[in-house]
Amino acid sequence: MREGVRAAPARVRTFEALHDGTFRRLWAASWAYYTYRAMEFAVLSWLVLELTDSPAMVALVGVSRAAPMFALGLFAGSVSDRFGRKWVMAAAQALSFAAVAALTWLLLTERVAPWHAFAAIGVTGTAWALDYTARRAYLASLFEERSLTNAMALDTGLLISSNLTGPLIGTALIRWIGFGGAYAGIALLSALAIALVLTARTDRPAGRRANPFNAIAEAVAVTRRRRPILAAVLVTGSFNLFGWPISTQIPVMARDELGASEVLFGALAGGLGAGALVGAILLASFNPTRRGSVYSLGTLLFHAAALGFALSPWYPLSVGMLLIAGVGLVCFGIMQPLLVLEVVPAELRGRAMGALALAIGMGPFGMTVVGLLAEALGPRVGIAALSVVGMAAIVVLRAKFAVLRDARERGTGG
To answer: What integer best gives the mean pLDDT of the chain?
Structure first.
């Protein structure tokens, strides 16, 4: 067992990781951070839809948010190995707060334009690229084995279930106090996230202070040498090309196809989070050992439910489809980092997560495609097309990588 790491008990209870004081503080910080990120995405998507009346411009909100992950993913991983992960997270939170505060002022003074929204969410997306790799590597320094699965389930459950609370809170604030008031609420949660991260235990840098470009080369090499990492990166890339981009069209579906108000849009988008919350509790309770199957089949379930959402003519059925998609989403989100973190040494974890971050950064390409399809043919066609291609990609990857079926790789010893 590594020094300072909580050993895995024989049987892990649902909220076992919360017995660790450091994790409790980080979990509270994660709640504030993930909630305001979900609020931000919902509020800005509705704002841009109202300002431009364009599905493609709404998709550009997601593109602006996800592009930094593609540009900085591998570099962000080397940063989290080079410096203390607590301080990387704190710096990312401070950067987010600056962007949120600036946009709050523009909204309250009624000076906002669509490009302000794209710029602000681009800055918070940059912060997310830094935080994503550092936060998950930090968790791996606190726990091991089944305890790590439990901690990752609880953290990822917060991340994905924030898609329930964030849109509901954000759209309700739009209705009651306007876009400026909604963003003032986001700013308050952002400040809380910074304060809570600063209470976490300070960790030491995990890696040597190497040249960042050498670290990036190491991340690529690690990915190529270890098939579980390569499989996780390819599934992640596929999901962010053909799966998650459909979320950018939920407000368009809500308003233009289902006749929903901004509050009903919040409830519709919250369906993803509600399903994720159920899935996260189940995963944290049962700690499945067949991680590759949960990961790949959960991703396949998301795509199938997204196709059902695209075809649904009724609001309640649409909510149900997104609930099912949320279960698949949390299976993807929890198992994704676990497949990576447990096959690399501590000093390479940030770089390995950087490879995942690069795959997550494929999202802008998918978001652009779904936005253009929605603009030309309608959001239903855009979502359905990506969902079908995504299902086919996962079927192919499951056939190619034994780890995604929890089988032994031929000639590799596993």
So the answer is: 85
272 vs 226, residue with greater confidence: 272
Q: Domain containing 309 — which CATH number?
A: 1.20.1250.20
Instruction: Judge whether 411 lies within some domain.
Output: no
Q: Among 11-20, 79-88, 235-244, 392-401, whose mean pLDDT is lowest?
A: 11-20
Residue-wise DSSP of 181-197: HHHHHHHHHHHHHHHHH
Contact 322, 272 (CB under 8 A): yes
pTM given for the model: 0.81
At what angle are helices 291-311 and 379-400 packed, to 10 degrees?
Answer: 160
> What tokens appear for 309 in the block?
């959402």
Q: List the domain range (segments joined by +) for residue 381.
A: 18-405
Tell me the CB-side half-sphere exposure of residue 297, using CA atoms within 13 A. 8
Query: Could you give the CA distance from residue 40 to residue 100 in angstroms, rounded to a whole number?
Result: 9
Which phi and psi (to 5°) does residue 15 adopt?
Answer: -110, 35
In a domain, 316, yes or no: yes
Question: Among the listed ranges 42-51, 58-67, 338-347, which one has the minimum average pLDDT value?
Answer: 338-347
Residue 414 lies inside a defined structural domain of this protein: no
Identify the DSSP state of 289: S
- CB of 92 closer than 8 Å to CB of 128: yes
Position 288: which residue type?
A: P
Residue 225 identity: R
- Least Cα distance to 371 among 237, 273, 248, 221 occurs for 248
Q: Which residue has the tokens 């790789």?
A: 409
**Signed CA dihedral, 303, 237, 39, 85: sign only:** positive
Question: Residue 72 corresponds to which amino acid?
Answer: L
